[in-house]
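Our consortium's second objective concerns turning raw sequence data into structural hypotheses that experimental partners can test. To show how far this objective has progressed, the report includes one record in full. It was chosen at random from the queue rather than selected for favorable results. The single chain below, 486 residues long, was entered without modification.
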Amino acid sequence: MINHEAIRPGQRRVLILALMVSTFMAAIEVTVISTVMPSIVGKLGGFDLFSWAFSLYLLTQGVMTPIYGRLADLFGRKRTYIAACLLFLVGSALCGFAWSMPSLIAFRALQGIGAGGLAPIASTIMADISAPKDRPRNVGWISGIYGVAAVAGPLAGAALVDFGWPWIFWMNIPFGILAIVLVGLHLSEEIQPHGHGVDLPGAGLLLIGAGSAMLLLTQYSTLGAGARGAIAALAVAALTGLVLQQRVASAPLVPLHFYRNRMILTGFGFGVTTGAYIIALTAFLPTYIQGVLGGTPLDGGLTLAYMMATWTAGSMTSGRLIGRVPYRVTALIGTVLVLLGSFGPATLSPTQAPIWIRLGCVLLGVGLGMANITFTVAIQASVDWSDRGRATSLYFFSRILGQALGAAAFGGLLNAGMGVTAGGHDPVADLMDPTIRAGLPAVERTGLIALLDHALHSVYLASVLVAVMILALAFLLPRKAKMQRG
């Protein structure tokens, strides 16, 4: 157990820095590779496999997150955190030495196994080392770092590609070593004995069930009907077995009292829906800006930057309010802003000024930042110290699951809206390439823009419904529950 009162202010600042660094490493690996993939494919080949370099990282990260939570509660935050960080660094080093696309994919999987423990355990440690009155603000730094990573990732990839693509992975090593050293030197905890170990059958079933489900979601469009059915059956069988196993296990991965915890159940639903909503924005909004509005990749990145920058502001605002008002109040303020901001993308048109969508992104950033911190702190405060790691990891897992679900659902909706490509053209590829776009006949270009505009609007209208669901979940928080500031 970690006694926050025994940690000196200087130690706490050092630990906060280390935890932010490691969280940034795990978060930026999702986006930094995007701008470098053309160079990687040019060196390693395997263009038909390159999407696995993205999806397998998220897949292994997602399925390992709940397991790390149990390990952190059982063996201590410090040991588990350092082990996860070491796995991440080994995976990063090996990625830089990859000699083919399959080897890169395998090393990305190892990287993801380590990353699955970085952010949730960092958030758990941040809660442990903070006094209750400071916890919302400090945990908010972990949330805010995701916004910074989302903006910095593509920019860092573009800057490092001139030095060689392996450096996008090797750049993690000095920062990771720094984080390990700082946590190793400055974090002290007393490991409380536990009568039971890790639920290995439950962990295996979770890996198979969650892994199969996320594989089906992330790769749905590339799989045949037979493969889809087989993977779906495997996921259902494994997850059903997991539920039955948890009822008889002496130390279940997901304790039975979690299913009766209103905060945890509501937070899980919030994580899934917000994860899906964020994918609708980050994956498809740049496509609209470039393909429909004729903007540049920089225009798309800057538009998202509005949301990511204000996310941090929303987190800090919520941190000041939590403890003074009930959780439901800050959650409702944040989710109302999310709903209002969702009308920005939903009402876009090819003739509209960019300021409209940027205003929507500002509202979305502030709202998501406020609501996310509220749910994180509420979940951590609703359980004992011995369950805090599992509860936090389960919440992080729900967000990753939501991203996979959103990518599959919104991607399918976009493909359905596009229908059969018109006139032998791939509308997205033709409109995103400035040279091809400029060379298209005016009538044909107008038709392709209208087709893409219609398809993307179906995605954004669906995202408004998701925003309504997010708002509804805020009403499920207990009316008077709030953090004790003592």
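The partners drew two points from this record. Confidence is low (pLDDT under 50) at residues 420-424. DSSP finds 18 helices and no strands in the chain. Both points have been shared with the crystallography group to help prioritize constructs.
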